[in-house]
Amino acid sequence: MKQLIYLDNAATTQTRPEVVEAMLPYFTEYYGNPSSVYEFSGISKKAVSGARETIANALGAKANEIYFTAGGSESDNWALIATAEAYANKGKHIITSKIEHHAVLHTCEYLEKQGFEVTYLNVDENGVIKLEELKKAIRPDTILISIMFANNEIGTIEPIKEIGEIAKKHGILFHTDAVQSFGHVPINVDEYHIDMLSASAHKINGPKGIGFLYIRSGIKSRSFVHGGAQERKRRAGTENVPGIVGFGKATELAVAGMEERAKKESELRNYLMDRVMAEVPFTRINGHRKNRLSNNVNFAFQFIEGESLLIMLDMKGICGSSGSACTSGSLDPSHVLLSIGLPHEIAHGSLRLTLDERNTKEEMDYVVESIKEIVEKLRSMSPLYEDYIRHQAK
Amino acid sequence: MYTEKVMDHFEHPRNVGEIDNPSGMGTVGNAKCGDIMRIYLDIDENQIIRDVKFKTFGCGAAVATSSMATEMVKGKTVQEAMAVTNMAVCEALDGLPPVKVHCSLLAEEAIHAALWDYAKKNGLEIEGLKKPKSDIGEEEVEEEY
Q1: I need a surface site. Which of A137, A259, B2, B22 has the fewest CB within 10 A?
Q2: In angstroms, what separates the C-alpha of B61 from chain A's closest C-alpha?
Q3: What is this structure's pTM?
Q4: Is A326 annotated as a binding-site member?
């Protein structure tokens, strides 16, 4: 295979060899079911408890507030649906934002069909929630606010602490989808007044298929998967022991190296961002310039379409993603890019690159040169660019 | 996701460019759904398409269908060009993923729009040619789903 420059770490990450190594014994040696009584299974049970403890510590939470799930989407579904059902007698109004992940947005649409009312908050041009609009949206029957910690496409970090304070003041539950931020930025559930939080292992160099939902003690929540007594009777099903162990190890590594990693990533990201902005005309940065995930950059190249750009980057061994309609499998470009006010034709030309600390400056140079060449080629083929140039000549 | 032929036409698109004082020019599609195609035709006195050029803003399939469609009409008579349908372009590319079939519709429409422009300029009537829609609307695209 040709050289690979993987810049799609918001989609998924490499499972670190240390993580795989930690998991392996729980497939072949200690395969016991944690629910069984014999001593052999105790090893599995202990491993699960250890991982739960590690994850809880990373959030400033208690171990019995962490519920393992199959991933971020399940956690989001659970947080919204179970809370809505459990608190329906108090009210049927939920507040979220227009830029949430589809795991939240489509679950909200489902709840609307079940008779709940949902307010979708706008964001400003940087993708930040407007706190005044949030305050105004609160009603006596509002039971839940669900706002993502950081956006998966444009990397903008939301004012979570302020949102948590508003929710607390009004006695409303606050859920945050932290799939892109857990293990990347410091999170303390008490400091931020977070009542529920979703996260996923494979975004922090852990395995796929394992996530968790943090539920603050004392919150009424219904079981989401009915069956056995696992996860304090709230999520049935034999525990994914190797996955949980891997998630624990990945969390340990992510938390230990967080500051250093963020520094390395943001330096590299800024280098890439600055070079592209200086050398490729008609380009903009989407998302907040400062308050954004350290490894995320999202460009919009005017006059070109994102899927063409991605295929050409792929030919050069570069993996990225785009919010163009063609790549989303729908006819509309990304709802996030439209929400920050981009016109359709510019949203179609977006490119998201999400780095890893192990990427190098040399790789960034190669990426910049590739982008320059490809954007120029696509613009030379673009009727929109032709019209623009003709218009300028007049 | 794409066939080898699609990738070949995407990577090495044929007939990209513009024609000065074209016999006919047509632009179809819209930026909203992310595909815009423009075709330039140079047609001689015997109604033979001497040259054809295109410009496309769109995905891999849109670029490849534009390229293939221009290859298929080049050197043909105006009437023969009318037979280059979206299905013919699709087949020539060994097929497109189902969600991308609407892109090939755009190529057919772009050729028709350029031919309409040519017919109008010369006071001609081309059998089977209808007034093109300047904008391929959402309703048509949605049919593909």
Answers
A1: A259
A2: 9
A3: 0.93
A4: yes
